[in-house]
Amino acid sequence: MSITGSEDVPASYGTAAGFPRFLPVSSSGSAVFFEWLVGRTALARRIGTGFFPPVGALAGIADFLDRACSISEVRRTVWDANWSSVFPCANGSASDILTQQAVHGIPIADVPGTKTSPIDATIGVSKSQGRRYQTLYILNCNLAPHAPTTSANPFASFVLLTTLERFLLHIVLGLSSLAILYGLYGTAACLFVTIVFRLLRRLARVTRPPGYLSNNEDMSVCMLVAIHENASTWYLYCGSRAVVDTLLNKSMIHSITSPLGTVLPWFLRALAAFQLAALTFVAAQKGWDGVGLLAPVTVDWATDRLCYTEGRLARSWMRREGVAVTARGFRFSGRTAMLGAIQLLKEKKATSWMDGILAPSPRREVWLARLNGQTDENLMSLEKQLSSRDQAWLELNSGLAYSAADVMRPAFGSPITAEC
User: Which UniProt keywords apply (predicted)?
Assistant: First the structure.
């Protein structure tokens, strides 16, 4: 079986995998689970679940294998500030897992102008009026020098994982036999589901696309990410285009192959139905079968907290791929100063990328022209036509943008020396 994404979709979709031709993304019964599954699978390079699959997970995995899409309906929006493109974030929650690991516990610095400014009175902002504060996290992503590559020692890693998998399967098989001897048939059936799922999971192979962690552009990246245009928390990815483009734009999953071919999703759906029947049987017994089932569920909860946490998954992916991330946090008094600082720091002077966030207007055009250093007569004439209120807005936000850019510059272009 080879499951690949469509390759003839518009570039604005932002991922090589694109949307499948035969099923829409919204067909997923649980978009949140789909987002979580895609992200974990993209980072772990295997179907990312705990040892004991929860109810509904098997059907969701089967749906994922059928569609093999890296974009879910619970998605964030990406604004490429250099190339003025806007697209949905690819790879599910993969970038969000890495981002939360990078920004965890970092302090938030107030940029100049976050406190009340005297010019606010000129444009009609009182001290008592609540400001709409914006938080911006700058994530500088790079391939660390002299870092191990993906194929640094694949044999040792494969042997270790295979040995551990076999050991756990033998333990679960023994527990299943013991449960049958004591009459805990529902518990034994649920353990049997775990064994079969782990075997099917081992048969599935997740392969990377040819352009994985590679770059064909000399320009560094500058991509702004948020859940929507009116968000209050933003993430600015800069640094290596190979890393950021792989996380946000390109699909990290090229194909999922299995010797079972297209039968694998049907096996998983049948296994999901059998698991539901076993759990219903356990609930109907109201006896020791439920107590027996509680033991593997508790063990699965403990192992998931120890071995399958998202922080561990993120650190493992960065160490394996040689990726390093540093993060800084800043707080702004509004979106305009934040967007202006980004416009000053990025390489290309294109401005249409922010049209959906800050609507085009005469004062915005004059403001952006001032930030870009343009002084032609048409802009000078347009500036003279602005009202006194717009003139005050222009002076305030130009000064705030330059001040914020000076504070953000070290974080925007800081060299990467260690993993987060």
Answer: Membrane, Transmembrane, Transmembrane helix
Query: What is the pTM (predicted TM-score) of this model?
Result: 0.78
Tokens read off for 49: 């679940």
**Residue 294 corresponds to which tokens in the numbers above?**
């509680």
Residues 153/159/165/166 CA torsion (nearest 10 deg): 180
- Composition of the chain by helix, strand, coil, percent to 5: 50, 15, 35
CA atoms within 13 A of residue 393's CA, in its CB half-sphere:
19
Q: Are 11 and 245 in contact (CB under 8 A)?
A: no
Strand order from edge to edge, sheet including 85-88 = 85-88, 77-80, 221-226, 233-239, 134-143, 323-332, 108-110
Closest CA to 220 of 7, 416, 15: 416
Q: List C-alpha distances in Å: 84 to 81, 150, 213, 237, 333.
A: 5, 32, 22, 15, 25
What strands, in cross-sheet order, belong to the sheet with 205-207? 2-4, 255-257, 205-207
pLDDT band at 220 (very low <50, low <70, confident <90, very high): confident
Return the bridge partners of 141, or none: 239, 325
Share of the chain above pLDDT 90, in %: 24
Single out the residue of 294, 300, 51, 299 nearest to residue 184, CA to CA. Answer: 294
| Summary mean pLDDT of the chain | 78
Cα–Cα–Cα angle for 174, 37, 58, rounded to 5 degrees = 45
Give yes or no for residue 119 having a pLDDT over 70: no
